[in-house]
Amino acid sequence: MITGALLVSPAAQADTGPATTRIDSVDRAAQGERVVVHLAVTCPAGATIKLDVTVTAANDTRIAQGSRVKRLDCTGVAQTTEMRVERDPVGAIFIVGQATARTVRKVCDSSACDVTAIDETIRIS
């Protein structure tokens, strides 16, 4: 299930052009201390994109959660990127199974920024 929310005016969208992000896979690493999120990203050449990914998963009666922010220069063609999301040390470790991911992308060019949030169900492998 994928849901999204547009957080700025539609006029700003036209200035930054179409942008897409897609989580291709999420792998458990370091005995559950982190997950590695593999994303496909497309955004207009000359713009920049800031990705903020938060992964949340249940581990028995506890919650594993972590966030990571990354900035990329847009090329106008599809790019892949990897984000190593460390768990919050107060929470549980990540385990293999279903989780949720919230990706907030902020695409900016010289005249405007477009912010979009996407919530999706993922699987940690």
Automatic annotation (TrEMBL):
Tree of life domain: Bacteria
Protein name: Uncharacterized protein
